[in-house]
Amino acid sequence: MGAMSEIDVFVIGGGPVGMVLSAELARHGVRVRVADRRAEPVHHSHASILHARTQEVFDAMGIAGRWWPYAHPFARATIYAFGTVVGALELAGADSPFSVPLDVGQNVTEAILVKRLRELGVTVERPVEATSVREAGDAVEIDLRRADGAIETVRAGWLVGCEGSHSIVREHCGIPFEGKRYAAREFVQTDARVRWSYTAGVGHLFIERDRFLGCFPMDGSGLFRVLCARPDRNPDDRSDPTLEEMQAIVREIADPDAVLSEPLWLNRFRTQARRAPTYRAGRMFLAGDAGHVHVPVAGQGMNTGIQDAFNLAWKLAAVVHGRAPDALLDTYSAERTPVAAGLLRGTDAGFNTLSRPNAALRFALEHLAPLALDARAVQTTLRNLVEEIAIGYRASALSEQHDRGSLRAGDRVPDALLVDVAAGVNCTAFDAMRGEGWTLFAIVDDDASLDAASIAALQEIAGAFTDLRCRAVAVDPRRVAAGIDVLADRDRTLHDRWDVHRPTAILVRPDRYLGFRGPLDDLAALRAYLARWAAAPAATAAA
Length: 543
Prior knowledge:
The protein contains 14 helices and 29 strands. It is α/β, with parallel strands linked by helices. It folds into 3 domains: 3-48 and 105-179 and 276-353, FAD/NAD(P)-binding domain (3-Layer(bba) Sandwich); 185-270, Alpha-Beta Plaits, CATH 3.30.70.2450; 400-542, Glutaredoxin, CATH 3.40.30. α1 (16-27) links the parallel β1 and β2 (32-35). α1 (16-27) packs parallel to α3. The longest helix is centred in the middle third of the chain and has 29 residues, at 327-355.
């Protein structure tokens, strides 16, 4: 047996999901190690879309701007069915500070995350393979094998499998991976320059009788991800397609004079749709492709996995530090497995529509889809779904509502422009949430005040619980007594967006979802909520 080492959390898998999880754990002060059996990060684009919610995650991590020099805004995708323009999906305009998805290679994403981990004192250990995992009382033991044959056993308080669909963690836990393989269908793709009659810098999606072709912009001057799903004529063929093969596809479906050149990557693959019914078994968790895989429609996979990691990290950190009960960790699977279930339903339906439209679907594409895509409400709904800002956790045990506001407990909290009264500068609601803990907003309208007694009660709550900060938001900041940070909302942006029309307490989770909402003049329910989900300093010290 090799050397034994101990750590708080061990992460198997050093792709984007594992690195986001590890970076967030380290940012929260957790001792974490992460290992990957690959010798190096990926060298090609692979998962290449960053949706609005993922960019918000990176903003909370303090690194969102690092992608901008390398990314192309993917603002629009025109849809063609059977040779006719159906309409366009307008991807720009999401209700987020990051209002347009970014097209940027996974190789860039991994390089940025590697750098962030190093800043936090963490290195992805490569190539290191986890050969076995086992429960060991109040810990987990992981056997690791390095490239030189050296064996190490790690003892960790918690283990997270982010190692993809062939997860050793999932297999050890005996968690099913339910779903199906898309038989008789194959995908071929390349990232290449495309010279043709269609506009560069935007997307183009072509639907035919038994196949579809998607061309997604990687820059503004003709570099595209070219992806075709078609009948699988030779299921045993594992070779990469040639550039000539990809060019022939584009010429046959889209433009007979198209010329493809300068390929960066060529790939052939088959896919499946599967998910685990739970992401937790004792001290072991699943995240990303270890818990869900699906057909590549709308670029949801990596984004969903990153949000798995962001959801789990703060909860795991709170439990590691003794600041929350073990029950908090159960909310991870309870919140994220329904997201994966919905994702698989949606991508499966979308794939079937795109790749094998029957007569009814063809009629709908040709006659109904143009009308639907011309409707603003339809565009907004589709955009919010694709950009993943419509995801919420209203059914979660962490979501508690005591008033009738339309922004409900469990919803993602939208941003709003405010003024930091003390500093005299503009700021945002997202700025007010920065840090590792919960944020309590005490919000008063223009006809209400926040007096000294109310502020004392709020500060008593903030002081009684670890990782909790308090902010007052007022239309007229002069109506707020001293002793609390005040944010001015003079044009009522936050009040309107958060649907606040009376003095209200809104508690925002570390992942920027609304945890608790109730009247500001009765804080008993808020105290009870915090007592259930957060530990007071005295309890932490005694742990």
